[in-house]
Design a protein that fits this description.
The protein is an all-alpha fold. 92% of the residues lie in helices and 0% in strands. It folds into 2 domains: 211 residues; 332 residues, Methyl-accepting chemotaxis protein (Helix Hairpins, Orthogonal Bundle), CATH 1.10.287. Helix 2 runs antiparallel to helix 3, helix 2 runs antiparallel to helix 5 and helix 4 packs across helix 6.
Length: 601
């Protein structure tokens, strides 16, 4: 039914709304509680004001006694001449008087800072009036005491008015004010207690009324809760059957319709699940049969594929073998060609070698004659070197004798020089008589010095000559030894040349035989070359045929691989289909177990 038509029917029937009822009850309860709280707050504030008034009046009673004590202390300080203490006490007295006046006026007119309300009770106002009258005379006496022009005797007289009698009388008056405030506070407290009792009774009554009303309005809700619990327990047969026309009735009606729809849906789901289960079983059976057939086909394709792979491997091996054989044939052909060229070159080289050997044999014979001639010449040179060495040795001996003679001349010159010096000394001793002898002695000394110098030069020259002679002797000796070695080498060379000449004759005979054999090898190489060329041509034809066979086998193998891949894909698809069917079957079983939990009509 459309919502607008439903609303119109609800307006026509003027049916009550549970929401409005609950809203009204909650609003009424809230307003009622607010009013009660306001009244209670007002009453307690009044009681609090009375309590503050009692506290203030009580403090005024104590302050009266305190002022009497301060005045007595002030008079004692004046009497003792303690002006500082007197001034301090005077300040305290004035401060206490100000506080006393403020508290008293606050009790009469009210004071927010002190938490005091204005007193409206006539009885208390009369008591406060008598309190004020007594306070004025008490205050006048205190003012006279602390006045600067008052003498000590006057202070004592005024102090008598402030002390015990007057203070006790004022305290009693204040006590009556406190008692009046206390009685009024107790009266108000009793009234508040009575009012609170009435309020509590009203609240209990209102609570009972609201509870009954809410229980009456929420009874359909309990029915809905029972239906919801039955749905939770998978029972779809229970209905709310709410007859009210408010929102709860609409919820119950909608819930019943939803249960009817859900019941029908579950029953149709059970039927569809059974159909899907049967179809799934047929699908699994068909997939298993198709899978077995495809498996056999794939196995056959695999066998064919393996045979083709083995055939392809055999063809590959054959191709490799033929290629290897063709390569060997080409290598043999190349080697034969190289061998033929090498044999031809060897033949030419052997002929040239034979000519060279003949020439070498002739040259060797000439070298042998030259070596023999050189040997005889070397022998003569060796004899001459020996004679030269002997002559140098004789020169060395003569030079040694010259060196000895030079040393003797040097000694004689030294002795002559010494004698010349002695003669000069003696001539000096003789004076004028020995002057001529001194000149002769000086000339002799000069001659001795020249002789010694020349002898030294000769000695140096002879020494250098001896050194060169010794070096020449050593070189001549070494030359003699080297010449002897040359003689030995020349003799050995003569022997070797003789042996070479004999060997060359034998080698020439062997070369002639080798040249004849090489010519025979040249003929054989030509024949082998022709045979290898024919074999190379046959290998190429065989290789071409095998290459064609290999290409054909590769095409067949590729087609077989495609068939194998297609079979594997088909087998995988059937496997996936079977897995899907099994998962579908599992899902159907789970769905059946879940649906089976529901109780339907």
């Amino acid at each position: 039914m459309p919502i607008k038509i439903r609303e119109k029917e609800m307006k026509k029937e003027k049916k009550s709304s549970i929401l409005k009822k609950i809203t009204f009850l909650v609003g009424f309860t809230g307003v009622f509680i607010v009013l009660i709280l306001a009244v209670v707050f007002f009453l307690f504030s009044r009681i609090d004001g009375f309590a503050n008034a009692i506290d203030v009046s009580g403090s005024q009673r104590m302050r009266t006694i305190l002022l009497g004590y301060y005045c007595a202390s002030y008079v004692n300080a004046i009497q003792e001449g303690d002006r500082g203490k007197a001034e301090e006490l005077k300040g305290r007295i004035q401060k206490e008087i100000e506080t006393y006046e403020r508290f008293k006026n606050g009790l009469i007119n009210g004071d927010k800072e002190l938490g005091l309300g204005k007193t409206k009770s006539d009885e208390i106002l009369d008591l406060i009036a008598s309190w004020e009258e007594e306070w004025r005379s008490f205050k006048a006496a205190i003012s006279s005491i602390i006045s600067p022009g008052t003498s000590l005797n006057q202070m004592k007289r005024y102090l008598g008015e402030v002390e015990v009698g007057r203070a006790v009388q004022l305290k009693d008056t204040i006590h009556r004010v406190v008692v009046a405030y206390t009685e009024l506070s107790n009266l108000r407290a009793n009234n508040i207690k009575m009012l609170l009792f009435v309020i509590i009774c009203i609240v209990i009554l209102a609570t009972l009324i609201i509870s009954v009303s809410i229980r009456a309005n929420l009874k359909p809700v309990r029915n809905l809760v029972e239906v919801v619990h039955s749905i939770e327990e998978k029972d779809l047969t229970m209905r709310s059957k709410v007859a009210s026309r408010d929102e709860i009735g609409q919820i119950g009606e909608a819930l019943d319709k939803m249960l009817d729809t859900l019941d029908e849906f579950i029953r149709s789901m059970k039927e569809a699940s059974r159909n899907v289960e049967h179809a799934n079983e047929d699908l699994i059976s068909s997939v298993e049969e198709s899978g077995a057939t495809v498996q056999e086909m794939v196995s056959s394709i695999n066998n064919v594929h393996k045979s083709l792979e083995r055939q392809n491997e055999v063809i590959e091996d054959t191709v490799k073998a033929v290629k290897h054989m063709a390569g060997l044939a080409r290598n043999i052909k190349e080697h034969v060609e190289d061998q033929s060229s090498a044999i031809e070159e060897s033949s030419a080289s052997m002929e040239e070698m034979a000519s060279s050997i003949s020439a070498v044999s002739k040259n060797t014979e000439s070298a042998r004659h030259i070596s023999e001639k050189l040997s005889s010449i070397a022998k003569g040179g060796g004899e001459k070197i020996k004679a030269t060495v002997e002559a140098i040795k004789e020169i060395q001996q003569a030079s040694s004798k010259i060196q000895t003679s030079v040393m003797g001349i040097t000694k004689i010159a030294a002795t002559t020089n010494l004698l010349s010096m002695n003669a000069s000394i003696e001539a000096a001793h003789a004076g004028e008589a020995g002057r001529g002898f001194a000149v002769v002695a000086e000339e002799i000394g000069s001659l001795a010095a020249d002789s010694a110098g020349e002898a030294g030069k000769i000695k140096q020259i002879v020494t250098e000559t001896l050194e060169k002679i010794e070096k020449g002797t050593e070189l001549s000796t070494e030359a003699g030894r080297a010449f002897n070695e040359i003689m030995e080498d020349i003799e050995r060379t003569v022997e070797i040349n003789t042996e070479i000449a004999n060997a060359m004759q034998e080698q020439k005979a062997g070369i002639d035989e080798i040249v004849e054999s090489i010519q025979h090898l040249v003929d054989l190489s030509i024949q082998i070359k022709k045979a290898v060329e024919e074999e190379d041509s046959g290998s190429n034809e065989m290789l071409n045929a095998i290459e064609k066979l290999k290409n054909l086998a590769s095409e067949i193998l590729h087609a077989s691989m495609e068939q194998k891949a297609g079979g594997d894909e088909m087998l995988q698809a059937l496997k996936n289909l079977r897995d899907l069917a099994e998962r579908n079957n599992s899902t159907v079983e789970v769905l059946n177990s879940k649906i089976g939990q529901f109780k339907v009509s």
